[in-house]
Amino acid sequence: MWQAEHVRARLAALYPQCSVEILGMTTRGDQILDRTLSKVGGKGLFVKELEVAMAEGRADLAVHSLKDVPMELPEGFELAAVLEREDPRDAFVSNDYASLAELPPGAIVGTSSLRRQSLIAARYPQLVIKPLRGNLDTRLGKLDRGEYAAIILAAAGLIRLGLPERIRALLEPEDSLPAAGQGAMAIEIVRGERSDGVDLKALLAPLNHDATARAVTAERKVSKIFGGSCQIPLAAFATVEGTTMRLRAMVATPDGLRSAHGEVAGSWDYPDFLGEQVSILLDSQDAHGILEACRQEAAAADPAAAANASQDA
Ligand SMILES: NCc1[nH]cc(CCC(=O)O)c1CC(=O)O
């Protein structure tokens, strides 16, 4: 809702003659709180209901956290704009400890992200990772009630909701490489002109942030190459300086014991190419073997879920 309101306010400032209304919706991703997303169908759960509303003409655009948007949109939909990225880093949140390194052995860390789980398990094998779902208030409430010693959240969500003081430490990309698209918002529309001839994409173009859009294109290329199953800890993070893009990526097993890392840099004019190049680097460290191991492990644990799952960042 914060994100929708942000887009509404920006459109109202750009087009004072237009009225922009928010149609609040709850998605399956918001409702399913007892299971990790990877087990119930992944990212698509946050966008499907909004696409139905657009297809039925009840809404013209949908505002998403880009991290939750599947790599391939259904036929007839497109991303019209990617907004300037908020802080893309993961945040360490705790009432009693200042950093992951300070946590005592056996301390319980909350996260339902396989990527965060894998990174923590690799560096801090003495910690215990427990699932954590729900909206931000729910997650913080569980921390405050002592169910966890610490939790890991996207800094962007805490900042947007006015809770930056809850961030005890920001995890640097070197330690916790962000998920593809983390911290960026995207606006999805029905492809093509509206029936009344309005070109929504052109109207939304001023909201597009070029450097962010190029960076997330590279990141999402990596997700596309290795994606398809939510059972995979996957990170992809691009930064832009001038017209040079630097792209880092990682795939790993959930236990963090096997991982592949890569980094490339090049012109920001070829984000897909950079995504392919870094994927080749990962493959030279047996990334596909790692993914296969993840798939087999997931299928053994829960065959039905593994069959229809997609990426949960
Ligand atoms: N998967 C849920 C989700 N999708 C986007 C964000 C945070 C905001 C963002 O990354 O833009 C979160 C929560 C989290 O990761 O803590």
From TrEMBL:
Pfam families assigned to the protein according to its UniProt record, in alphabetical order: Porphobil_deam, Porphobil_deamC
Residue span, Porphobilinogen deaminase N-terminal domain: 1-192
EC number: 2.5.1.61
Something else known: The porphobilinogen subunits are added to the dipyrromethane group.
Keyword Flavoprotein: no
Keywords: Porphyrin biosynthesis, Transferase
Limits of the Porphobilinogen deaminase C-terminal domain: 214-266
Entry protein name: Porphobilinogen deaminase
Cofactor binding mode and count: Binds 1 dipyrromethane group covalently.
InterPro entries reported in the protein's UniProt record: HemC (IPR000860), Porphobilin_deaminase_cofac_BS (IPR022419), Porphobilin_deaminase_N (IPR022417), Porphobilinogen_deaminase_C (IPR022418), Porphobilinogen_deaminase_C_sf (IPR036803)
Top-level EC class: transferase
GO MF annotations, alphabetized: hydroxymethylbilane synthase activity
Purpose of the protein: Tetrapolymerization of the monopyrrole PBG into the hydroxymethylbilane pre-uroporphyrinogen in several discrete steps.
